[in-house]
């Protein structure tokens, strides 16, 4: 079987090997760049921008100036008063030449442009793990539906090779794009960040009507795939009992739903926010305890007879 020769390109954040968190078994997870949502609790701010980009760690910088010299766009300069390299973001083209030139690892690159064939070559290296662990490939984001054509090429190759295929998505997209990928996907992990449209807009930046409509359409479709609905639990932000009950009422009628998953909020993206020079809106919120998560799972279970997992583990 050819490894694919498609020239379709996509913006890839990174490819993670032997993940156990994004579907069954050992998985290769292809994280894509670009997301139409702006969740206040986003833990991967480096996945939001659709283009490759660079971050900067001032503490590591020796002000040697090599990055300034190599930048083809003149986007970098040294600000002596700040003792830092400053970037004119409007000029940066994301080429990441400065990353490879920096001798101090003070510049970090996020993402690269790859062809479907490039990605498939990486996936092919892990085939043996899928078949021995019951795993497969997961395409995640960012938002995979924003690069639907690129994703389609990867999934088609995986299907032809008999590799299990999962997609992690917000479903904030047109039905056409979703429907094109449903026949190629065995498992859909879909986020439901808040069931109330006003709160959803406040916390995520967009309305949830299209998301909920797409979930129902996908569930009623004739395509054969499993569905998992995932909700991040961000204490005091999106997890009121009313919101949990509203979500339970929405999902309890879904026929393809395998289980509901609650994901505990965490702050592992803090350093990346700093690197990218971005504000982290929820930096003061603590990660909830297991007991807290379990209480939310029990609230959910009172309304919906649906299995619940907490961070991948069945809730006791
Ligand atoms: S990524 Fe390229 S254009 Fe942007 S600052 Fe670095 S060298 Fe310049
Ligand atoms: S190349 Fe690295 S160490 Fe040198 S000025 Fe640029 S960021 Fe700082």
Tell me what you see in this structure:
Helix content is 31%, strand content 23%. The protein is built from eleven helices and 14 strands. It is α/β, with parallel strands linked by helices and 316 residues long. The protein is globular and about 60 Å long. The protein has helices spanning 66-70, 97-101, 116-124, 127-133, 148-160, 175-181, 197-204, 209-220, 241-251, 270-276, 290-303; strands spanning 9-19, 27-32, 53-56, 76-79, 84-87, 107-110, 112-115, 136-140, 164-169, 187-191, 226-233, 257-264, 308-310, 313-314. The chain folds into two domains: 9-49 and 112-314, Aldolase class I (TIM Barrel, Alpha-Beta Barrel), CATH 3.20.20; 54-110, 2-Layer Sandwich (Alpha-Beta Plaits). The strands form three sheets. The protein has a ten-stranded mixed beta sheet with strand order 7-1-2-8-9-10-11-12-13-14. Strands 3-6 form a two-stranded antiparallel ribbon. It has a two-stranded antiparallel sheet with strand order 4-5. The protein binds iron/sulfur cluster (2 copies). One iron/sulfur cluster (SF4) binds at residues 54, 70-71, 73, 75-76, 87, 92-98.
